[in-house]
Amino acid sequence: MIQLSKSDYMLYLKHPAWLWLKKHDKKKLPPIDDNTQAIFDAGNLFETYAQQYFPQGVKLGFTDYDEYLDLPQRTKRAIDNGTTTLFQARFEHGSITCICDVVNIVADNTIDLYEIKSSTKAKPDHEWDLAFQMVVLEDCGYKVNKIYVIHVNNEYVKQGEIDYKQLCTISNITETVKEKRQETKQNIQKALKIIQSPIIPDISPSLAKGESYKEWLEIYKNLVTVDPYSIYDLARANGEIIGKLEELKIKRLIDINDSFPLSQKQRLQIQSLKTDTPIINKVQIKNFLDKLTFPVYFLDYETLASIIPAFDGLGPFQQLPFQYSLHRLHSPYGAFEHFMYLHKTNDNPAEPLSKSLRTHLENTGTILVWNESFEKSCNTLLGKLIPEYESFYEQLNDRIIDLMIPFSSDWYVHKDFEGSASIKKVLPVLVPELSYKELGIHEGAGAQRLWMEAVLDGKREDEKEHILSDLEKYCKLDTFAMFGIYRQLMKTVDIKNPQTTNFLSLNPEVANKLKLMKDLENKIKEAMQKPYIWPELEELFRKENSLNIDYIEGKFTKKQVEKKIQKVHDSMPSIIIYSFGELSYVMDYLKVDPQIKQNTLNMMSFDVDRVTKLGYSYRFSIWFYRSITSKVTMYCAIQIKTK
After folding, report:
1. Beta strands 96-107 and 336-342: pairing type?
2. Which SS3 state, helix, strand or coil, does residue 235 take?
């Protein structure tokens, strides 16, 4: 007999087809990933503190399937033997069964029911969860007296040993749960019919309830082929909106007409798709960029957080930085520097991180972040934990500007942002040369989990050095990605690169060589303006020696290289490298061989005197592009023009 458990029932409430897949085709559901498992583990840890409210409680539970099957009998025996409080007891009646976090027997066949949740408040989902348990218990012959949720007290601050009474809060939700009794019984019958059906119910995302829409949408896209730019890519959509579009037989975003009720963000997304053109408010973006003062910093934190605070002064879920990456740019197209800190021991990182950060932050200049509310909250917390740095972090917060604003404010809208202002959506469009895909760590949740496991908890001692290396690369890319997006915004509003400014700031020798090059280019331009000289110049430019190109990974004929470079310009995203510092950093990021790196930098400063004596000028260019296989290829070109 197939039974309906509490977790089954909660899946039914999310989407009926979700329950069917679990029972009939589980392989089509995504496996539990490491980040999700870490959340479960944290919840289990919180449960051990909540159970301390019941010192006489007896834990039952199970570790394998046989113990699970035997759990109802063990539960009954424990109750018959006079146990009044049980953890993880299982009750079943016919086709329905549940495991209860805590049951407390207050009289003959009368139970107080507790659910332990690692949220900061009792939620509607908890009410449905407990309503199902109540129905099972009542069908088993028990009377349910009071119903509670034990959840996290988000005002708790750790000082010394964890105090479970301060960590936990108990909310009485008896009445709201009992009001759901009849509807729950009806839902149970519907869920049982779905389990017994050989045919999967309607899988439309429109049937997803509450906050489950996004979760189910990912499953849905694995069940059917969804065309690019379908209605399921609509920004901030929910089941209700999708249902209306499906009723109108609309499948593509481009087919949604102007009369359909949409938000402004959704309309702009569709407009950008229909015109196949980004929607850009250059005036607003330029005003935004004009507010920045140099030096400009790009700052990003990686943080630890847990339900059970790791250090004194922390509360549940508070995000404490253990790492930062900082890029410093001295002028719009000038050289830039990179600094970082990564805490590598399992003590509180607040003070050493703060000391390092203050060393590299001057007292002036804009600090650009992505999602300022998060970064500012980290700064405020650090200031509270380390009072001597409180004024430093207050001043830092006053200088912060959110680089996400042009995108969250819809000053820059692109069809492939899908209505999102997330850096993970913006970066592939604006700076496709940079990607998180090739890194060992791809997102913040993974960075947090791996650092906590490797450093804080010591669970990954054998992998620690590798994880720390991956963390450095990931956090470094976060701020370099912001730098790349900033540069693209500059180009978008036509803020030009000042001629040679970035090179001149590096060293006088380079400045002198560039001046010679510029003088020669001007002479060529003057000559080209004379009609009688142009044919001669044109003929010279066609000569084989007029274009000498070195390809980093090998030698090619002029024709082959010209074809490759043309491909870069025509169909591949490319970036221009403006300074030695920037080129050096990018080559480090791309893991260019050190000797090749040095040779490339040498090429940028080759003997101008020799070239100029021969009457030539030159221009140096760098192209990067990412191929279909995601392999980064670098072209290095020197163009030598005859006089």
Report:
1. unpaired
2. coil
Residue-level pLDDT at 337:
85
The amino acid that residue 609 corresponds to is: D
Give pLDDT tens digits for 563-614: 544 443 343 333 333 334 445 555 555 555 666 555 555 544 433 443 344 4
How many CB atoms within 10 Å of residue 14? 19
The whole-angstrom distance between residue 421's C-alpha and the CA centroid of its chain comes to 11
Q: Are 216 and 202 in contact (CB under 8 A)?
A: no
H or E stretch at 412: strand 412-413
Give kind and range of the element (H or E) at residue 564. helix 558-571
Contacts of 305 by beta carbon, 8 Å cutoff, 6+ apart: 317, 318, 319, 320, 448
Strands (E), 136-225: 143-152, 168-172
pLDDT score at 515: 52
Across-strand partners of 110? 107, 143
Query: Whole-angstrom Cα distance, residue 643 to residue 368?
Result: 45
Packing angle of the helix pair 181-196, 16-24 (nearest 10 deg): 40
- pLDDT, residue 331, reads 81
Distance CA 403, CA 251 (A): 34
Q: 171, 148 in Cβ contact below 8 A?
A: yes
Which residues partner with 105 through β-bridges? 111
Q: Structure tokens of 237?
A: 């959509």
Question: For the CA atoms of the chain, what is the radius of gyration?
Answer: 31
Task: Check: CB of residue 312 under 8 Å from CB of residue 158.
Answer: yes
Distance CA 134, CA 193 (A): 21
- Greatest CA separation for the chain: 112
Answer for the pair 433, 485: CB distance below 8 angstroms, yes or no.
Answer: no
Q: What is the dihedral of CA 422, 428, 431, 435, to 10 degrees?
A: 100
DSSP designation for 330: S
Tell me the C-alpha distance between 600 and 636, whole Å: 7
Q: What is each CA distance from 409 to 112, 362, 404, 488, 609, in whole angstroms?
A: 50, 29, 8, 17, 51
DSSP, res 295: S
Strands 367-369 and 400-402, sheet pairing: parallel
Length of the chain: 643
Which segments of the chain have a pLDDT < 50? 498-511, 513-514, 516-517, 520-521, 523-525, 527-558, 561-562, 564-582, 603-643
**CB 337, CB 581: distance < 8 Å:** yes
Q: What CA–CA distance (Å, rounded) separates 182 from 106? A: 25
Please give the Cα distance from 362 to 339 (Å, whole number).
13
Structure token pair of residue 277? 């053109």
3-class DSSP string for 69-119: HHHHHHHHHHHHCCCCEEEEEEEEECCEEEEEEEEEEEECCEEEEEEECCC
Give the span between the Cα atoms of 247 and 319, in whole angstroms.
44
What CA–CA distance (Å, rounded) separates 528 from 215? 63
Which stretch of DSSP H or E encloses residue 634?
A: strand 632-642
CA-to-CA dists, residue 573 to 269, 433, 538, 551, 632, angstroms = 22, 7, 30, 18, 11
Q: 496 by DSSP, 3-state: which?
A: coil
Cα distances from 364 to residues 108, 295, 360, 402, 566, in angstroms, run: 72, 7, 12, 17, 43
